[in-house]
Amino acid sequence: MTTAEKFKVWLETIYISDKTKKSLTTGTQYVTGLNALNKQFNLNGEGIFDINTNLDHIRNLIDKPENFQKDYSSHFNAFVKFRDYNIERDNKSKKPLQRQTDVFKKQQVEISAIETTIKHFEALGYIVISKEKDNLGWDLEATNINETLLLEVKGLSGSISSIELTPNEYKNSKDKKTHYKLCIVTDALNKPKLEVFSFDLHTNVWTNIFNEILETEERIGVRMWKK
Predict the structure, then answer these.
(1) What is the pLDDT averaged over residues 158-165?
(2) How many CB atoms lie within 10 A of CB 28?
(3) Lowest pLDDT segment from 69-73, 75-79, 159-163
(4) Given 63, 93, 123, which residue is the final one in a domain?
(5) Is 130 helix (H, G, I), strand (E, B) or coil?
(6) Average pLDDT in the 151-160 region?
(7) Could you give phi then psi for residue 225, rounded to 5 degrees?
(8) Domain count, the chain
């Protein structure tokens, strides 16, 4: 996914407009506006979307009266926020297990599992936002231009893929199974290994890319393990 495409998804999922206090219904207009500035200032390649572009220099060009044709300042200001958002995320990713300081092993495992999952899906071109505090029945949402995936993350300190889902998680895993992913991170505190399980509509089982299956035993919630 190009930077322009990531910017569009970010506008529609994370960005909050100062005017409406909501995300944009579509970010296409903002991408078009920045492309107009690229053309106006004869910027090569990705122009403003290039990670190495000096945005302060672009700001100075925009602010010159002789360059004013149409006001794209709101489009540019949004992109500056997008750049800052990604810088902040990159800085956090360089500090594993420091999303919050905690002395308890269970919380450290959970933090490692979340970070491992975020990095995996961001590397695939998704924008990932946390839903951990919203009690929705999944922990993360991963969005690209084609889809939004609902990621339930389970961290384990050992090497055996055996998890339990709460009743809320289990209900959502069944109701939203076409978009729901079970992300199991084993050996989370040493060498985290992520396995992503999807529901196969043809066989009615949860399986990973190696066709390994999660056996299911319904309880109040559900317990799952890999054979």
Answers:
(1) 92
(2) 12
(3) 69-73
(4) 93
(5) strand
(6) 94
(7) -150, 155
(8) 2
